[in-house]
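ERR on first pass: missing label on line 2. Operator R.T. fixed the label and resubmitted. Corrected input:
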Amino acid sequence: MVGVSVRGISKSFGSASILNGISLDICDGEFLTLLGPSGCGKSTLLRIIAGLEQQDCGTIEVAGIKVDHLRPKLRDVAMVFQSYALYPHLTVSENMALPLRMRRLSAWQRLPVIGALLPNVRSVCTEIKTEVARTAKALGIDHLLSRKPSQLSGGQRQRVAVGRAMVRHPAVFLMDEPLSNLDAKLRVQMRGEIKELHRRLGVTFVYVTHDQTEAMTMSDRVAVMLDGQVAQVASPRQIYACPADRRVAELIGAPKINLLEAAPRGEGLLAIAGSTLAVDNVLDFGDSVTVGIRPESLQFADRAGLNTLTGRLRYVEHVGADLFAYVDVPGSREPLVARLPVELASRLQSDQTLHLRVRCEQALLFSADGRRLSEGDGQVTPLRSYAE
Amino acid sequence: MSQQQVVVDRELWVETGSAEALAGYALVGPALFLILVLFILPAGAVLAIAATDWHLGAKTLSFIGTANFTSLLADRAFRAALFNTAAYVLMVVPSTLVLGLSLALLIESGKSLRAFYRAIHFLPFMTSLAAMAIVWEALLHPTIGLVNQVLAAVGLPTANWLRSETTVLPILAVIGTWQSLGLALVLFLAGLKAIPQELYDAAEIDGADGLLDRLQTVTLPSLAPVSLFVVIVVMLRAFATFDIVQILTKGGPDDASVMLLYALYRESFEYLRTGYGAAIAVIFLVIVIALAAIQTRVVNTRTSRS
Amino acid sequence: MSVLKIMSQRCLPAVIVLGAVLIGNVAHAQSTVLRVSAAPSIFSKTFRALASAFERENPDVRIDLDVSQFDQPAIMRQTLRMAIFGDLPDVSFQGSNYLRLLADRNLLIPLDRFMNADPAWNPQLYSPSVASAGRVGKMTYGLGVGMSFPIVFYNKSLVSKVQEGASSFPGNWDGILEVARRIQSENNQVLGLFSEYNSFMFQGLVGCFGGSMMNADDSRITFTDNAGQEAMELIRRIGLAGQAKVDMTKSQSRQAFTGARIAILLDSSSSLASFESEVAGRFEIGTAPLPMTGSDASLPTAGITVVMHTTDPARQGLAWRFMKFVTGVEGQTVVATTTGYVPANETAIANPGSLADHYAAHPNMQAALRSTPRSRGWYAFPGENAGRIDMMIEDRVGEVMRLRQLPAPALDRLAKDISTQLPK
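pass 2 clean. output:
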């Protein structure tokens, strides 16, 4: 069953084309992240799903119903914004009650003094109050109900924004980079809470972020968006292990994947950075190939040889449990990053010559136009055009 | 010779702190002097003159204590001035606020020519009210004025706007609103630009997507600080109205449009009863300071709460 | 030695400049400077012409002229301010209604002494009206330079249409009101008669009926007598005739008159020049003096009088020479031909010469000229509250004009209010 269906959505602002024929099927109840660098159109897509922007062409379906001509409030979606967008002059409980008031009370009934005198208003208001209290308790903010947003911390505001979305019991939760305004520690905590929330509610979540850690840790699936198109939609594991495109590979993984130009030498051999790699796959390499090696695929070696790269150690980053060595190799402007065990720290010095063995079975090969060369398995959404 | 000089120098500047303080006073000195001479001393002089019966140009005066103030409160013309000024302010401030906000919303929602509309509406604020008052006088002429001609052509009743006790104050309020409108408009436009689009988005998703709902949920509450500022500025300007009374009505007919500042001017410079006029000035000052203090308190409590 | 050299290098230019100034001053030491302030500033050309003409005839005197003040109230206030600093000019031109105020503050030198001592001051050269314009109580504080009176302006085309051939304008109030009524009934866009009702006009109307504001020694209010009642009744009739509904400000009434929306206008004679240039031939303007009844009838005189401030006897002599020049035939000719004022000195008009030719070419000035014999000073109430009293008069008379109050009770209330403002 499809929660949200996006078909052929295109959008331009003036002469700038932001979205180019996006199609995406979001399963009911799944947590899908739209991941991409700034300007790739992910927020625009989210806003189009919400109904805040009108697409130039294409359709959106939510829970099986075409919503293209419906106003946002009728689309059964709720949205949490990057800056929370809490109404600054209302208290927390009033902020959370607003969507319910808008939905259940007419304009006359909402008037400040006169409205309270109309029949039924009292009972509806009490209903709303109970629901708000319940949601607040679930989020742990029931002690803040009478405060104004300016008196709350970042994390508390976030929860209020989530609560405001929750009271509506929407079919789809839309989140536009909600954690980017929080500090690192809070971010980690909130990641867990959002994931927990998703588990509890079981509702479709569409989450937009540029932070790949969030995407990897929280999502059921990740849709990587680049230049207004979906580069790949797959589970985080697959995106990591089998990126469809060189740019997807660059996006995912910290530190960034090492990319080196290689020249085929026939028979599965590649000349790379002054040494030779023997690759298992026998594929049509073409004239040149880019090899992607994750930092954890590089191991310390005693001496040079086949499948071993040699270079000068530039510097070392010690991050507690890991050691990252930055090595200059010939043929590459950027240093190679290798993840090495911390015990080696004492044996490493700047400017020494370092040998790194490549685990070739983990290497990713990309053709000249960026596509990954593979036997063809894995969920890959091929790019229609590739603009460098 | 040089040795002695060094000793002398050291004695002169025992603490460098005093040198800095001296420099500070020297720099502040001119400004302080000007404030004293142009503001504090004249204000003090007015306070002193208010307790005398001095007439402009008289060589002698005598202290009469608070006699000026007691006769002011019993004076029909002064009570009329107080009442008229209050009524005028109560007419100008709300209408400027409402009209300015409405115009700002209209202009902001338009797609083009925003700068043009802004300029057009700001022009009256920049022009000299004295020149504009003469134009208004021609417009409001009871027989050949444009206003009455248009009203008569449309079939609406006309009136002798500047010479009827019932219409003169409202008409002055219209002119005052017309002039302050530009200021309110520009301030509201700036305030509107500062409202984050995300709030409108959230409101739209929450269901507040009609014009009135948006106004009530997002726009008006966000404009509260700007509105407060506009109220303060317009109120103080309205309180200090003088030019239109002096040029158009001279307080008439029969004191129906005399305002505080005009009463002050008339008593001091036309009747030459400067002591009496100074008493009016003191009362005016007290009222303005009170208003400003109240408004400062309101602004402070708002900003400390948020 | 080096010090001297430096000094001479720095000081030499200063010495030269100083020397030049001193020499220049010595050269001018022959002529004395007479400081003169004059208003209104729209007639600055007239005052400059007077100054140059005087300087030509009296090469030993140089006039330092200040025409910066806009109107008579402004120059009065400037005079008061300068008095505080002891910086009064030697001579100034003031509005006749401010003479009392300035005299009470001892800022004016009485002129009777000069008039009596000077053989050149005789009625052949200076008519009595010159001195009477500047009389306050028993003393003369100023000499009349130019006078203006309230007169009747009328739109000749509108009036002749209802006059059915009678070419002369009615000489009494009933007649004028009748003409106004007829014009109004024929042209419903036109107001027949408009009169302003400030203190000056009220004095004028009371004077037309032979009355005055107070009695001769300022002890009793007299405008509540018969003359005042008649004047107030006339005001009411003017209001009834139409002004009550379309009351307007002075400038609006002038616009309406030149726009042919008011047929008959009571205004100051000095407006004639501006009316004629505004009308620019669209219709012919006629003038007539205010109808006066009885031999006691008088008219208040607006206009400028020249007064003396200086206390130094040598300069007083110079000032007196200047004042005589301005009020003499030559000065009065300048005034009459370049302003709308009537010359205060009747002998200037009587003598054949350029002035007589000038008036022959401007028949509309006759109305003002004929008012001259009846002229009396612009009365100012005693005490410090004259300005306030003027406002009270305008308010009460305005009420009657707008038909909000009947004449008799308005007069009583006015008398009561004014008596509280008079010195006890």
